[in-house]
Amino acid sequence: MAETIETLQKTSRVIQPSDSIKSGTYIQNYEQAYKQSIEDPENFWEGIAKELDWFSPWNKVLEWNYPWAKWFLGATCNISYNCLDRHTKSWRKNKVAVIWVGEDGQERIFTYAALHREVNKSANALKSLGLHKGDRVTIYLPKIPEQIFVMLACARIGLIHSVVYSGFSAPALQSRIQDAEARVVVTADLGYDRGKKIPLKTVVDEAVSNCPLVEKVIVVQREKGHFPLTAPKEIDWDEWVQGQSTDCEAIPLDSETPLYILYTSGTTGKPKGVVHVHGGYMVGTYITTKYVFDLKDEDVYFCVADPGWVTGHSYIVYGPLLNGATILTAEGKPDYPNPGRWWDLIEQYGVSIFYTTPTAIRLLMKYGEDWPKKYDLSSLKVLGSVGEPINPEAWEWFHRVTGGTKPIMDTWWQTETGMIMVTPLPSVPLKPGSATRPFLGVEADVVDREGKNTDHGGGFAVITKPWPSMMRTIYKDPDRYLLYWNTIPGVYTAGDVCHKDEDGYLWFMGRADDVVKVAGNRIGTAEVESALVSHESVVEAAVIGKPHPTAGEMIKAFVILKQGEHESTDLIKSLKDHVLRELGKIAVPREIEVVPSLPKTRSGKIMRRVLKAKELGQDPGDISTLEE
Ligand code: WT7
Fold first, then answer.
1. Which of 239, 335, 441, 592 has the fewest CB atoms within 10 Å, i.e. the most exposed one?
2. Distance from the CA of 389 to the center of ligand 1, in angstroms?
3. Which atom of ligand 1 lies nearest, measured to the CA of 520?
4. Topology of the domain comprising 514-616
């Protein structure tokens, strides 16, 4: 590993920021600003918090009771107030907040005042169901504006939202509804995927049939009558909000009040419900959006994520709205109806900030440079990448086709961190493939298993001090929260392998644990394994991640069949269909290999590391603990 890191660096060039970028950006001297911010982080974060509105002030910035943090103690606030009312009370009232474009080209535009009204109506509709502060609402929607309305509506009245990505299948949705004990589910009849209709309501029907705590299912009907509502639990969205008042006060909440739960994968089969709170999360997402993308009032901000993932929470909904930005959000894939889709949107709407993913860039690369060349991309100012390491080739391509002068912010962070943690700012010299340096107020490092500084060379990425938007716990599972802070004593272990170069630049190399990043989506190998062994023909399964040219990583599964079962194309297909049904499309293994046995430790733990090394033709390292 060390060798590949060295090679990578030797080929890396340094790109200095242009004078025009540097002179106009918020943070013109990163080194100085960073040094100052970490000399007294509490003072730094307090200064940022003061840029936002609070109903009553804090009496303490941070209470750090390792590893439990509370920020802005005693203060009351509401993130929805800061996303909406702060702007409707200003000249931004009639500024465009959200431009939404459907896969079919349909356009819906909301000013801050209009968004405010929609959110208030949804909040009143939620109240009409008898929901109370702290109740959970599961949101299983495609990328449509109602997703934003209902998230902010929950926040407004102190409900906790749990957005579940609409690509998950019924059993995966069901377990997330059950863990959160949601009283209400909000869904739609259909999603669209490359022109195909995805029947979401059917998935919800199946999931909810096993969730007795769910009292109501709200259904946005995009094609009225497609799935007639039948059960008494079901309410049509339009009828639900019709007649609701467009006024609804955002209630003052203690800054540590939970805002949302977002499920993410880890090393066990059970997804973890990451909990974020109003106060600190609002401060972290607000300032990172502003500084990383150099967000100004005249910008048009386009982030391609789905609100089903944390990027959508922090950098489509909360961060940009906290800043009063104009947000473009578009349903659909980058190459549908053709590979000019996103370039076309950039030209049409004059996008200046474009935040995307390495997987999407690699996909667009395959279609060639003629596609971006067809469009006027001169409105672009700052670019962003997130979700997985961006290889220098993809970085250089993205840089070149967008004009060769726009800085790319390679942002490293996690569902758990809530906000961008390691990233360039537009004024920072770039090295293609490196997420560069920690954000202001953030202390990140690379250490060995004992927590010792590795100076130069590879190790584990850690965060050494608490930060405002850090997760507060794992829902109903505080022990799993503790693991982040005691795997390497005293610091937050991110689970990533990382390398720090002589300039202090960080190079994230991938996960150190049993998590695979397929197209930037986080899949726990244990989840796929347990789906596979629940198939009647399988006794045991092991899953690994394997490099893939566009998706970054792909899933490969090794299975041991039950006695009497034989390998066949039909069987492999049936295994894939089974994972599709259990978890959803993103978790389906691309390759499945039938094997007679699996490498295990004497205590019976499958050694995925050995399987992976063998698969990639590498040295498996120390195999002295291997049993078979
Ligand atoms: C994991 C977190 C961050 C929001 C979307 C994914 C990987 C993320 C980068 C990057 C290299 C990255 C890490 C991290 N990752 N961004 N810029 N360079 N790796 O959130 O699903 O919580 O996944 O994504 O492995 O731990 P997530």
1. 239
2. 8
3. 6
4. GMP Synthetase; Chain A, domain 3 (3.30.300)
